[in-house]
Amino acid sequence: MTRPDTTIFDEIDITRGLTLDHVGIAVYHTEDSLRLYGETLGLVADPTEYVASENVKITFLRGANARIELLEPLPGDSPVARFLEKRGEGMHHLCFAVADIEGTLRSFADAGYALIDEHARPGRHGELLAFIHPKSTHGVLIELYQLRAR
Predict the structure, then answer these.
(1) Most buried among 12, 16, 91, 130, using CB within 10 Å?
(2) What b/e readout covers 15-50, taking b as 16+ CB neighbours within 10 angstroms?
(3) Average pLDDT in the 103-128 region?
(4) β partners of residue 61
């Protein structure tokens, strides 16, 4: 596999200073993870949500300067279930907030990174999101996230 051409980012300001929005962690049982992240580390859990299109339940936890997304697969097949089967529990993805998701996707593609999503797709709360394939990002799935203008 050829290395992506990161020099393109030197010419384009679109990816400078991206903000880490959250870290996604794949887990077998959310309740077990809440003991660590909530009770022990003191992060505050948002209400759990079920995302039928991805066959997963998610729980966001907030701290003073951190957000963690717990991803637990629902029964049946899903990307998170396949991840857990292959790798076990652990970091699933890093999510970066971007101002221009389509422009950022073009920058990644132009630099030779493999995109999972050629264009942004709507998230469950009206945000836009897209993923960069981990095979071209040193084994780390990268999510890009943009709030929609209201």
Answers:
(1) 130
(2) beeeeebbebbbbeebeebbeebbeeeebebeeeee
(3) 93
(4) 45, 68
